[in-house]
Amino acid sequence: MRHGKKVNHLSRKTAHRKAMLSNMSCSLIEHKRINTTVAKAKALKQFVEPLITKSKEDTTHNRRLVFAKLRSKEAVTELFRDVAAKVGDRPGGYTRIIKLGNRLGDNADMAMIELVDYNEIYKLEAGAKKATTRRSRRSKSSSAATVADTKSNEEE
């Protein structure tokens, strides 16, 4: 039984796994989306979301904590400057995993992990509300206009 065992070891030793997650986090922060396997994407989500939460409050202590995990000055700077400004009002859920299918070489499940606030495609769909049509109730002004139009058509 695997009760209480939260970490996916990804078939790697601890140092290799931490270095890989750190590098993938830096790539995600720099490029805003990366393609990887589903298992690595889920492990990366657990790794990077607390770092983004820490970046919402720009203190020296938080910068040092994030730098200890990422080990890249450029990634820390971009995280605290650009990414934190976009996710400031979001209470969590900073990343999205989209499954892409299987890889040709070894048939591994592939996924794209991306920062939610940097995808303009989903923002446009959410921003453009569909006009609702309720045919059962008509406003009085539109019914009065139709009555006036029918009277003018009868007079002609």
Gist?
The protein is of the alpha+beta class and 156 residues long. It has helices at residues 14-31, 38-55, 60-70, 73-86, 120-127, 140-155; strands spanning 33-37, 95-102, 109-115.
Describe the secondary-structure layout.
Layout (H helix, E strand, L loop, with lengths): L13 H18 L1 E5 H18 L4 H11 L2 H14 L8 E8 L6 E7 L4 H8 L12 H16 L1
Antiparallel strand pairs: 1-3, 2-3
Helix pairs in contact: 1-2, 1-4, 3-4
Radius of gyration: 25 Å
What is the topology, as strand order, of the major beta sheet? 1-3-2
- Average pLDDT, rounded to a whole number, is 88
Tell me, what's the shape? Answer: globular
Output the structural class.
alpha+beta
Major β-sheet, in short? 3 strands, antiparallel
Helix content: 40-55%
State the end-to-end CA separation: 86 Å
Approximately what portion of the residues adopt beta-strand conformation? 5-15%
What's the SSE pattern?
HEHHHEEHH
List the total number of helices.
6
Number of beta strands: 3
Give unreliable regions as ranges: none
